[in-house]
Structure formats: C-alpha cells, structure tokens
Design brief:
2 copies of one chain form a homodimer. By secondary structure, the first copy, chain A, is of the alpha+beta class. The first copy, chain A, is built from 13 helices and 24 strands. The first copy, chain A, is globular and about 75 Å long.
Chain lengths: ~650, ~650
C-alpha cells in the first residue's frame, strides 16, 4: 500500500490500492470546453462562491468560530450535519484549485481550513454540535447524530486537497489524520461496536488509507462496512434498511433504504473489497448494482422512489411523479459505479455515470449555477412556484430550483462533482488509455512502462455525436473509446499516414491498438438521432408510455412549449408514435395528440371510444434544462396514442 | 334548534338541525344479518373487547387513572392523541349498546366513563398529556398537541351515548359539556384565535349543539371552520395545506393535505353550513367533493396518495402501489359524504359511501376483527410479513393486518363505524323512506305526519343483487331504492294485490309511491355480474390497466391463487380482456397471460415483440378479503394484454 515517489499519483477522487485500472487524474486530463467545460466554468465562477456565501449567512461556517471561541452551544445554527457542507465545499474548492490554480480560491481555501482547525479539540474530535457542556454527548446518537458522516466528508476533503496539492501544508490533512486516529481508537475492534446512521466515514477512511498508507484506516473502514446488518442502530420507523443496518452488505440482493446512504455505503464497500481482496464482497456488490440498475433506477439514472424515507422502493416501483431521485443519490451512484468500473473496466458502468451526469447531476443546478433541485421528479403536474431567492427552502419542496435548503447536501455535492469531473473522463491500463466520457479535452499521461500517451479530444458532444481524437505524440498504445449501449450503428475511423480505416463500433469499448504518430486522428461517430425508449412492462407507473432520448440526454415535454397545441399542462397529451421524432432548428420535435377535456364524475367506468385527438408538432426540451423558463408542468414519459 | 318531545330523535351520528332529509336511526333500522350483520357481530363480539384490552395494556386508559391520582406526567404512555382512542372506543360502545342492549357492555361503558370523569379538571379541561407540572402547558402546541381533537371525539362519544340512551345519567354528557364550555371560553370570539392542527373538535361541537340546543357550540364550530386558512398554525414542512390552514375552506377547489384532517374538516363544515344556512359554503363543499371524487379518489373509495404526509396528491396522482388510503380517511370521507347526502339527497353520495364501506372500511379489519390495516394499498409487490400479535406495529408497516399500532386511530374508528352502521341504511323525508344501503334489515319508523312505515329487507347482497322489500303495515308512502351508478340494467318489481308491475330502474333513486298493504313486496334486481372498469386516461399510474368489479365490490388478483399459472407473484400477469370475467364455484374468474421472465440489464430500450404469453384461468378475490390466507402479493389493476 505504500506509495513510492516514482509512481504517478493521479489527482482523482478514488484510487484503488490494487487493480489494473487507474483513473487519469486532473493533471492528466483537462476538460477544455464544451458541455461540461461550460458547466465547470459556471461551477467555479458562480456555484462555489454562492455556496460559501450561504455557509456564512446561514451560520454553518461561523459555527466553527463559535466552537473555537468556546461559545457553543449558544448561537449554533443549522442541522446536526451542517459541518459536512463545509467539508464538501472544501473538497469542491480543492478540486477547483487543482483544475484552475486560482490564487483567490487558494486563499479562500486556507481561510476556511484555518477556521475548521481552530475548532478541533485536543484529542482530534471535531464537530460543532456535540460534546460540549449543554450539548448532547459525543457518539451518543449514532442513528441521527451524523458525527462520523461529517468526518467522512472531512477525510474526503483532505484527500482531494492532498491529491491536487500534495504537501500543501495548510493543515487539513493533519486535521483529518487526528480525527481519523480518534475514530479508530473509539470505534476500533475493542471500541464502540456500531456504525453511523449515514454511511460516509467508510469512504473517507478508505481513501485516507490509500493516501497515507495507514492500514488501520482501511481496517476501520472494513469494520464499519462489516458492522452494517448487526442491528447496532435502533429500530427505525421505516425499518433498519433505512440505514442499511438490516442485513450484512454482502447478503443484500439490491440497494435498499435511503438512497444516498445506500450508495455511499456500497461505494465504500467496493473500496474495502478491492483493497482487501475480498472477492466475495465485490461479487455481491456487482450483483447488487446489476439488480438496482435493472429494476430500481429511473431512465434519468435517478434513484430513490419514496419521498417519505428518501429511499429505494421495491423492484419496479418507479413512479415518475413521486420520484424522489435525490441529486445526492445520483452522486452517490456515480461514486459506487465508478469504483466498480475501476475494479473491472466494464463500460456499462460508464454508461450509467454518463446518464446520471447528464440527467440528474446536471438537472439539479440552474443554468447560472446558483439554484438547485434537491429531488428530481420525472413528471410535474402542478407548476412549481419560483423559489424565494432570500429564503432557505425545504428539500423536496414544490418550488422551482432553490438557492439553498435547510438540508443543503446537494449544492456542495454538485459542486465537488463538477470540479472533479476531469478525473472521470479516462482510465489507463498498462497498455493504453480508455476514453469513457466525451468532452473537448487534453489527455497527457504516461503508461506504467513510461510510454507517453498524449491526445486531444475535439467534440461538441452531446449536441453532435462525432468525437475526434487527435494524437499528439508518437507512441504505441491501445486507445479505447466507449460506445454507449444506446449507440447502435456507431462507426470508428482511423486516419493516419497509412490512410483511412473505417469500421463499425458496437456498444462496449472500441479499441485501436497501433503505433500512433502525432497527428493521427481517431474518429468515433456516435448516432445521437432522437430515439424512442420503451420501459420494461413491469414498471407499472409508466405502462403504455415511452420516453424520447437523444444520445445520453433524456428529453421531456414541458408545458411552456404547448401553447400552439392549445393546452397549458401536460395532462392531456399523447404521443403519436407513428411519426418518429425529428430534429429541426436545434430541437427535437414530436407529434402529439391532445385528448378532449372531458370530465366524468367518477373516473373508473366503461371504456369509451375516444375521439381522434387533434394533432400538433411540439418541441421537446432536454430534461436537464426544464423549468429554466419559469413555472411549468413537465413529463418525460409520454402516453402512446 | 330546540328539540321538542314530540319529535323523534334518531339514534344516528349526524342530525342536521335543518333540512328535509332525516336519517333513520338505530331504533328505526336494524340490520338483521347478511354481510354487514356478520361484520357487526364480529365487531361487537371481538373487535370492541380487543380494543379495550389494548387500551388497557398500552396504558392509554390507565393514563386517566394516573391523572386522577395526580401521578402524571410520570408513567404516562402513548402518543399525544391517545386519549382520543378511549373516546372513539366509548362512542363505539355507545352505538353497540344501542344496537344490542348488552348489559355487560353497559357495565364496561360506565366503568370507562367513570375513569375519564375522574381525570377531568375543575374547569372542564380534560387531557392526560398537557397542563400539569412537568407537562407542556395547555393549548401551547395547537399544531401537534391534538387537545381539541381529543375533545372533539369526547363530544362525539357523548352525543352517541345520549342519542342511543337519552338521559342515561352516566356523566358523559356532563363531562362533554364542561369541556365544551371551556373550549368556547378559551377559543371564543375574544379568545385564542387559532385552530387545532387536526380537525375534529368542529364535528363534535356541531353535534353537541344539535343535541343540547346550545347555540354557542355551533358558533364555536363555525369559528373554528372559518379560522382555517388564517395561517394561525406554524408553517409546516409540507405546507400549511397539511392541516388545511393554507386557505379558507370556502375557497378550496378540492380536498387537500392530510386526508383524515381534510375529510373531518369538510364534514364539520357541512354541519356548520347546513345549520347556519351558509349556502355559499355548502356549495363550495359540494364542488370540493365533486373534484375530489372525480380526480383524487381510488377505485376503492380510498383517499390519500402520499405516505410521507398521509395526504391527498395532486389531481390524477393515484399510485396504486404507494396508495396510502388510510382507513380513517375513508371513515372521514363517509362522514363528509353522508352529511352532503343529508343536505340534498343526491344518491351519488350513497354510492361513494357504499364503495368506501365495502372496499376500505371492510378491508381494514381481519375476518376475525382483531387485526387491521392502517393503510390500504391497491398493489402489493412484496408479500407482507405476519404481524407480531403481541407487538404494537407501525401504522403503515409492510406487515399483514396488525393487532395494534403506535398510532392506533383506525381500530376504534372502524369499530364505531360498524357499530353505528344501521344509521346509514335509510333516510326519511316527509313523504317516504329511501333505502340507501342494502342489508337484511327491519325498518320501523313514522313519517312527520305520523304515517307508519314498516318493512323488512331480505337480501344476500352483495353476493346476489336481489333486494326484496316486504311491507309490514298498510300505509301510503314513497319507497325509494338506490340504484347504484354501476347497476346498468336494474329492474324493479312491485307485487301487490293489484298484481305484478315491473319496470327498468336506472341509476339514481327508483321510487314507488302507493298505498302499500302489509305483504306487498318490492323487488329491486341489481345486476352484480362482474364487470371491467377502465380508469380515466389521466390517472397515469394505472394506464393500460383495468379493474374487475362485481356489484359494489372491487376484486383483485392475489398471488396465492396463481399457483396453477406457475407464478408466485403478480408482476408478470396480464389480463386477456377478450375473455369476459365469469362466475364459477362462487368466485369470479379471469383469463390471464403470464409474461416470460426476461431480464434486461437496463429496463428502458427498444420495444421487443413479446412472445404470446401462456394463458391461464385464475380466480379473483374480493379486495376486502385479500391477505387473509397468509402473505401474498396482490393487485387490483390488471395490465391489459
């Protein structure tokens, strides 16, 4: 596990200690523009400062100052997990600094770390909510206290910082180590035999072990993972499955319970399984992913079917209207999925990551990056009200995107994800590089044997399906390009001094191994023409409906586009599936029928011969762009006429 | 409003002070057997004693003893509304004593009343949870304290008692009056300008006004009704609509928010509107009922689409799998609907009451009357576990019917409804009697002018659709018989000395006015052959599905009946709608197809040509009988092949 100085340590969120596949970090991949480049720019210029502003004004960051001044519990503000938002913000800043080298951000980062450092107690304990006179004691409420959860995010922040600015000497890694040492001593083999109600510390500990080489951090992460299912947490109104304490991780068939907790735990369990060589656990997690993706995931990649417990439903229980599909659950799903990808390279994992990024993580923030969806419904029947820009909203309120929430996990989670997005673009093995997500980018790395792999990616994906890889140095390696599962009919073309070679590229990984010369071009042409997607017949809630997708982007009908059809909501529209969707003027158009507005006193009765509905051509909107034009109703799944 | 001694005062739950329509009370209608007679018998012999046992063992009744002994708050058990369960139990006992004249029940009733009486404070205040040293102060938490809610149930119990045993002198009416006087003085025009977070006190006050002639009880009920929408309650995580404090009652378009609260408030608002002659309010409530029934009600009559807030959803938001359909919401719906019926006699109201009784209120209790569903899903994907008979269950747990709940409003609510069921069977006007619900029964009453109306009802409805009315005394009056809206093709036959006269009876009220002679027979033949019901296309969650109904009874497929079809759950079955449902061996059979068990890694994709499924004939089960044969999966709405 010890890192030697000769090894390249990628600036990436997850770095398995074992395995053939290595993610390319920020220093090796740089997104230079395009869809994700624009989002990263907004994230850096608007979202991060918006978040810091709210962390200050809501009092969550000042809580640390009060702690340092001995003025707690008086004046403490925010929920029991508010400390974690500061750590997620720090993590986001760390990635952003790694990406942009912005001195102003560096200054902000150090200033926040200093305030956090001042609040840490002598024995390493760090939490503004517990342990002081007048507060509840430490570790007394593992179900709901979120103390370990907060520390997990602290550890992830420290890891991000150290991977992007090794040896930065700002104190954050030391803060994390002292806290992690305390966790190991309090919750170790001879300590409190329990877990945190919200998984997260496991992830942080596993990465901190990878970073520091400290074996007992991994051992502690493994202990926490294994303790799930021992029932050490109190019974819960919705069952111990809520916090995954109902059965051993390795015994589960699918993710269940609270969807963020479930994904964070599964991600950590992959870390533990890979680094400790626990193949049985890893196989169990792969099975759980398979079942969860096949039966418990929305077409957007979203997860979580219940508002009540923010939880997965049963298999096939995927209501579009009451979809919870929490932004953070998809971020957790990306973490889990990415770790599985690093364990065996299966490109299906990258398919889900792409889907979740375009259709959940990108849906949450507004175009200007300062308002967010916490939950991401797939069907809005009543237009949401504009959110009060000054207020703090409820997490799953019926408003449009809101600037902040009482439980505000999503905004900083979105920010850290976008800031680290470069690290999800490509992986390396001993013989080459795989390009997994498509964006204009520069890739500059070396294989284990020192072979330099350097290329640029030119693309306006997903608007256009053409991905052009321009090799920048002479080298023999295998270039792998992911062909998404929806991309039937893709083609691959290699242009070199030898001429042009073209072939079909079936979904999976299209590989080109050759002695590349600088200037060689590999072009992957992915068909992004709009297509109709039919849900499995067991997803009862969308029976008789289809969705329209274009490339990786899920489309929707939004009522603001229905004026010409003479309706002001989406309740009476049906799709004329005999007319394929077409592209015109940069939008996808479908033909819809509008059902007559008949009203019966009782809505269950004899079938009536429906009159032929009036037909209209209407444009669809990318789901991630919905509700950007004011209050509207919306649906992804369209009833077929 | 003053009752004169010459007026018959029916022993019925709701007695409008104004209006042409009078319910026939317990003394005038007696259910003598059949479907509801059997349920009433179980209710009297098993359910009521089961409830009292739990009220004792859970400590909820002993709380009153502790209060009387000055030993509170130590030892108090149960939630803040547990007092109300004792009052609902007393109400149930009162109706049952009225129905059966059982001296043992009379003794139990008086014993419980004595314990309640001992806990009342000098100024009339009565609640075991508030106001003592060490407890929260009185009226300080109107949002959640349920103090007024509890008193509303106390008032209803006192009214039931006085209407069934006038002048019983057990003290209950005096307890209620003292408490009501206190409520009027604390919350009157010059008092606290607020409401209870859970409507109910309005209902109790309105009925207490009718019983006692005390005008200010009605005025106080009206004040509480009118104060809804003033925003006197605190903001709520799910909006003030949760407790109907978001807008004035008369301004709403449909019932909204918590479904029990919404129905209780609407019922009380009808009482207030009728007794105070507020026609505008009454018209608003009729509109709300129309919209709620047309767009927010399940085929079972159930209401409430959300688990999270036990609330109505938006229009058309009626997921069968996540249906909450709380038993108490349907009891509230019956109270609201019954009051509207008494206001104008529209038989559609009786249709909904019948539907709710057969398909929700009857679904809740087990056949033996000692276990209950709190929520009534229309689609169970994963078999529920048997409930622990010793334990207290969570209200919407995934278990089968459970003996008791931490929030146990439903069992006593079911008990008081069944015990008072006779009073929902028929109404009288100045010129005759209408029979609204069908059960073997004796009807013995007098019209306002003294005309004796006496007849027996003979029927095995709903098994058989023939309802036979045998007149027992000579008199001229109008006999009205409700023809449910589903009963297309009903016929009416009058057999008398004049011969036999037969005619078609269209849905609504079939009337026969004549000078009846004892021995005359009126037969209504309602076609109860199984029929297919198609949901409105806007109910997205059941698109492409139909339900099978038989008479007033909604049917379901239950997995325990699918062994011959080779499947152990209901996820892969489709209905062959080309084969009409048939009756055989006392059950309704349908032909279903079983879809192949194919599994795709991603459940949204290209349409595949489905293989023709294997076909099987399977029997349906009455929804109210489901899960009586052990754990199973179930669905009411069947996808059409």
């Amino acid at each position: 596990m010890t890192m030697t100085s000769t090894t390249t340590i990628p600036a990436a969120p997850a770095l398995p200690a074992r395995g053939e596949i290595r993610p390319l970090g920020q220093g090796e991949v740089r997104i230079t523009g395009g869809f994700w480049g624009r989002r990263q720019q907004v994230n850096g210029s608007a979202t991060l400062s918006h978040i810091e502003g709210r962390l200050e004004s809501e009092g969550w960051l000042p809580n640390f100052d009060l702690a340092a001044a001995g003025k707690l519990p008086e004046g403490r503000r925010g929920r029991e997990f508010s400390d974690s938002e500061i750590y997620k913000y720090l993590e986001g800043l760390a990635w952003e600094i790694g990406r942009t080298d912005d001195p102003a951000l560096e200054e902000r980062f150090r200033a926040v770390v200093a305030r956090v450092a001042a609040a840490q107690e002598a024995d390493g304990y760090l939490n503004t909510m517990f342990g002081r006179e007048g507060q509840d004691p430490r570790w007394a409420n593992l179900e709901w206290g979120h103390e370990l959860y907060c520390l997990g995010h602290l550890f992830q922040a420290a890891v991000a910082r150290e991977r992007t600015r090794p040896g930065a000497d700002d104190g954050l890694l030391e803060i994390a180590r002292r806290a992690a040492d305390l966790v190991c001593s309090v919750f170790g083999p001879d300590g409190i035999r329990s877990i945190c109600g919200h998984a997260e510390v496991e992830l942080g500990l596993a990465e901190l072990a990878r970073l520091t080489g400290e074996e007992r951090y991994l051992a502690q992460a493994a202990l926490f993972v294994e303790r799930h299912g021992e029932g050490s947490l109190a019974e819960h109104e919705w069952g111990r499955s809520y916090y995954q304490d109902d059965m051993a991780v390795r015994d589960a068939e699918a993710l269940r319970g609270h969807a963020v907790r479930a994904n964070y735990l599964a991600a950590a369990a992959v870390d533990v399984a890979v680094d400790s060589g626990d193949d049985e656990l890893l196989a169990a997690l792969r099975r759980q992913w398979d079942r969860t993706v096949a039966r418990r995931t929305y077409i957007t990649g979203g997860q979580g079917s219940h508002h009540q417990d923010e939880a997965f439903g049963d298999d096939w229980e995927l209501p579009p209207d009451r979809a919870y599909s929490e932004t953070c659950a998809s971020i957790g799903s990306i973490m889990f999925t990415w770790r599985l990808l690093l364990s065996d390279g299966d490109p299906r994992y990258a398919d889900l990551i792409e889907r979740s990024l375009y259709n959940v993580v990108e849906t949450s923030p507004s175009a200007d990056g300062t308002a967010f969806y916490y939950a991401n419904t797939l069907h809005e029947r009543v237009p949401g009200a504009p959110a009060d820009p000054e207020a703090t909203s409820l997490r799953a309120s019926s408003s449009l995107r809101a600037p902040w929430f009482e439980v505000s996990c999503c905004p900083p989670n979105v920010a850290r994800t976008f800031a680290s997005l470069d690290a999800y673009v490509a992986t390396a093995t001993s013989d080459g590089v795989r390009l997994l997500q498509y964006a204009p980018a520069e890739v500059r790395t070396r294989l284990d044997d020192g072979t330099p792999v350097e290329f640029d990616v030119e693309t306006s994906y997903p608007d256009n399906g053409l991905v052009r890889v321009v090799v920048r140095t002479d080298a023999e390696f295998t270039l792998g390009l992911r062909v998404p599962s929806w991309a039937q009919g893709a083609t691959l073309r290699v242009q070199s001094a030898d001429g042009v070679e073209e072939r079909d590229a079936v979904p999976g990984i299209a590989e080109v191994r050759r002695a590349f010369s600088a200037g060689d071009v590999v072009e992957l042409d992915l068909p992004v023409a709009p297509r109709i997607s039919v849900p499995d017949s067991r997803i009862d809630a969308v029976r008789g409906c289809v969705a329209v997708e274009r490339g990786p982007v899920v489309l929707a009908v939004e009522s603001v586009d229905l004026a010409d059809a003479g309706v002001d909501d989406v309740s009476r529209i049906v799709l004329d599936a005999s007319v394929p969707p077409v592209e015109r003027d940069g939008r996808v158009w479908v033909r819809i029928g509008v059902l007559p507005e008949d009203e019966s006193a009782w809505p269950y009765g004899q079938a009536t011969d429906a009159a032929s509905p009036a037909l209209f051509d209407v444009p669809l909107v990318a789901y991630h762009e919905w509700a950007e034009r004011g209050p509207s109703t919306m649906r992804i799944f369209l009833p077929v006429m």
